[in-house]
Structure formats: structure tokens, C-alpha cells
Amino acid sequence: MPIGESHKSGRPPAPASKRRRTNKPASYGLAEPVLAGQAARQPDLGFDPHPMIERMWAALGRSVESRFFSEADWARASWEMLNAQQLFVGEKPWTPANWAQVQSGLNALLVSPADKRRAGIELKAAVDADEDAAVLQLARYEDKLTK
User: Is 118 helix (H, G, I), strand (E, B) or coil?
Assistant: First the structure.
């Protein structure tokens, strides 16, 4: 790999459901999932966080990923939040390198959808029955109005 290039550079791949591939390998999608124990609970941060850090920590706790986090993952997330906290409260200067370090830590936790796609992970959104019913009801209203 040439100097200055990264395996993460460029546009992230599209989700598998949105790709058109006619020559799928025979092994495509046949990986066996590994079942592990139950996910660990989100611990307290252990410090008084800046409001932005507090929101990010709460969002991590509500995220789909948190269902799969082990104690080690939560410890890593806590370290990354502490690193970001140091920037937000002025203990570290706001430099591009320091912000890149925060972003790199969040990328390692697979927080963004693009990072998940790069890792080959696709989370499907749950179907909301209420939303389907609302769309159907709106269609009925529209039919009544046009008649």
C-alpha cells in the first residue's frame, strides 16, 4: 500500500442489500454465526462528563451495538469518551491530530454505519407496524378525497 493511503480511505461499500453482483462466490453469506454469552451492561463513565460526551455515552447505551458489547468493549468506549472529554474541557488542545484520534477511537467501536459496512456488518431496521398502519390510513384518506 503506498504511503499516505489507508485501507479505510474512499467511499464505504454499499450495504449488501443495495449491491448488484452477478458473480457471487459460492461461499457468499454462508458464514456461521458464533454465539457468545450475554452482553455486559453499560457501566457508569466514572467522571463528570461534558454534555456532548454525556449524550454520546447515552446514545451508545441505547444503540443496537450495545447489545453486543462485552465488558472490554465498554472499557474501551469509556477510554474513548475520556479522551474526547479532555478535548471538550480544554485539557488537550483542539488539533486535527487530537480530533482524528477521537474519531479513530469511535471508528474502532464501529459507531458509524460506514464503519459497519467496511467491516461487513449490516443492521436491518425493524419494521414499525404503526408506521405501516399510518401510511395505509393516509392512502385511504387520499382515496376518499379524490372520489
Answer: helix
Q: How many residues are listed for the chain in this entry?
A: 147
Residues 6+ positions from 94 with CB-CB distance below 8 Å: 87
Q: In 10 A of CB 124, how many CB atoms?
A: 8
Q: Which residue has the cell 460506514?
A: 114
- Among left, alpha and beta (phi > 0; psi -120 to 50; other), residue 120 is left
Could you identify the residue written with the cell 453482483?
Answer: 21
Of 63, 30, 60, 65, nearest to 45 by C-alpha is: 60
Q: How do residues 38-51 score in pLDDT, each as one tens digit?
A: 778 888 888 999 99
* Backbone phi, psi, residue 30, to 5°: -100, 15
Q: What is the pLDDT of residues 58-96, one digit of tens each?
A: 998 888 778 778 889 899 999 999 999 999 999 999 999
Residue range 97-110, pLDDT digits in tens: 999 999 999 888 88
